[in-house]
Amino acid sequence: MTGLPPDLAGPARASAGHGTPGWLPCSDRALERHDPLAGTAGFGERWLLVEIESGWGRHAFFDSALDPALGARIVARAEEAGIRPLAIRRTRLRAPLRRDQTSWRWALVDSRPGRESIHWGQVDDPAELLTLPLDGSSGEPSEAPIYAVCAHARHDQCCAVRGRPVVEALAVEHPELTWECSHLGGDRFAATMIVFPEGLLYGRVGAEDASRIVERHAEGRVVPELLRGRTSRSTIAQAAEAFARADTGDDRIGAFRPLAEHPHPHGWTVELAHGRDRLTVEVGERLSEPLLSTCAATIAHPVREFVPVSVAHA
Question: Please, are residues 190 and 54 in contact by the beta-carbon 8 Å criterion?
Fold first, then answer.
């Protein structure tokens, strides 16, 4: 059995509210506290990406150029099928082009291990998305990855302040593969970036980090220190994988396969396949001190954090 060093994240401190002396954006506060990234990627096995070039309000599908009722029906239809909707748009697009959008690109992404795929299509009327087959049988398959960076300013200021420089720099290097996207969750971890089709969600990404993520992805590898998790897996399995990567040094995308999760009073025992080996990862849990997890939050609440306990090799 290999013992892991204590988690670097110290107790999270509650911070002053917005507008008070000493107030900081949520991502700055999270950096001060060293909030851990492992196991913080929201769940999403399959995704529906919809190009909405107009400005976005707090919710891109309900407060944009889309009719709100239509946007709500698109979201409801996707979610009923177990698919997570995400708005995308090109960065630095001129305002007239945003206003005069006449076609809507869409992508269906399957992020489940062994089923990874991307299918692209286009509609001339967004209402056509209500009849789009959601089983992956429509659209053109694509081998090219998608790099999406949250720059959803109306959702949280950190998404714009930290996300926009990242997406703009990445778009210079990879203009056809890069998109701004709506909220991915985890405002305090801005800039957040997701890589499809695998659904690899990263946090605290800077412009140089984004380039490194792209380079590693092309090699079939991840950047472990920035990886929040793979969205097709439970948060517990995400955390266990992060701790296994730290123990083994293996940064290959598909290096670990969850076999089982066993809850117990002190956390979880997670079994992972690692090549011919079987790893037993003990994942602990703690509650942070009360904190403000978004810039808009006014009441501090504790959040769940995962901590490494041990990794055993069999």
Answer: no
Give the count of beta carbons closer than 10 Å to the beta carbon of residue 232. Answer: 23
Mean of per-residue pLDDT scores for the chain: 87
Residue 289, amino acid: E
Q: What is the pLDDT of residues 9-37, one digit of tens each?
A: 333 333 344 444 456 777 778 788 888 99
> Which residues make beta-bridge pairs with 108?
48, 119
Buried b (16+ CB within 10 A) or exposed e, 175-198: eebbbbbbbbbbbbbbbbbbbbbb
| CA separation for the pair 70, 52 (Å, rounded) | 13
Q: Give me the long-range contacts of 248-255 (CB less than 8 A, separation at least 24).
A: 248/274, 248/279, 248/311, 250/274, 251/216, 251/221, 251/222, 251/223, 251/224, 252/220, 252/221, 252/222, 253/198, 253/200, 253/217, 253/220, 253/221, 253/222, 254/113, 254/220
Neighbours of 260 (CB within 10 A): 11
With b for 16 or more beta-carbon neighbours within 10 A and e for fewer, the 287-296 pattern comes to ebeebbbbbe
Rounded Cα–Cα distance for residues 254 and 274 (Å): 9
- Report d(CA 142, CA 129) in Å as an integer: 19
Edge-to-edge strand list for the sheet holding 117-123: 140-141, 117-123, 104-110, 46-51, 83-89, 178-181, 146-150, 193-196, 200-202, 227-230
